[in-house]
Amino acid sequence: MSEADASSGTAAYDWAGSNGARWAAKADRMERQLEPVNAVLFAAAAPEPGARVLDVGCGGGVTTCLAAELVGASPGGAVTGLDISSELLELARDRADPDLPITWQLGDAQQLDLSAGHYDAVISRFGVMFFAEPATAFANLRTAARPGGRLILAVWPRRERVELMQLLVDVALDASARHGQALVPPEPDEGPFSLGDPDHTRSLLVGAGWDAVTITDHDLVLYSGGVGPIDEVAPASLDMGAMRAMLDQASPAVADAVRAAVTDELARRHDGTGVPLGATISIVEARNPG
After folding, report:
1. Cα 52 from Cα 49, distance rounded (Å)
2. According to the model, what pLDDT value does residue 13 have?
3. Contact, 131 vs 100, CB < 8 A?
4. What is the pLDDT of residue 215?
5. Closest Cα to residue 82, out of 49, 119, 47?
6. By residue range, what is the domain housing residue 154?
7. What pLDDT does residue 9 have?
8. Could you count the other beta carbons within 10 Å of the beta carbon of residue 101?
9. How many domains does the chain have?
10. How distant is the alpha carbon of residue 126 from its chain centre?
11. Which regions of the chain are under pLDDT 50?
């Protein structure tokens, strides 16, 4: 999920508004899609009992609860789930076990006054790629980490390395061209892919005061739009990010053609459970030198 710039005007990535609401409406489906990412993220983060963790862009709270189950095994362990979407935080509060040591906080990590030196770890699953001022945001997050505290992020590389997303864009471009309208997808290094260049990400974090930056790629297979029959997963796959931005440009006839072409492609790949597609993710780790 995502911390976002609510004032950006980019509807496809408006996590404080329409995008957050759309995600909340299909949270179970999207969480099923991202289960393999959780496993990789927590293998890297490995929060210890008693640790204090900040989950940035916590969305519907699944990663926050996973962290709280681990750190809450010892006294003092606690997790803050931070998100810019009120709809998603409401969903997270409603679904979380009230006995877990979690504080939910609505706000923007670029601007929020975070407790200095409070957290042993700052984690995020796809929640830090939408900042209008990423240098400011990552400096603020470093301030919130204790000396020696860790940053562990799951981020997307450039879109062309993520079949889960690039395939749908390619099908949409072909279908729209055949029907007389040239749709323009978001750039492959913007929005969710803004941290996809390792050199840029490393430079950004070092400039924000982090050190010991490492970036490790993991090749996963994720179910597009979650699991289920094609009449459920195809609409979910079409309703977010680049596909939402492209459909918003399309005439009604071209939008119908794109939806049909994408649905046909996904149906062709359906394995009886869902549509498995390749998805490279990057795990970014860094340390606050204090």
Report:
1. 9
2. 65
3. no
4. 98
5. 119
6. 11-158+189-221+274-287
7. 31
8. 17
9. 1
10. 2
11. 1-12
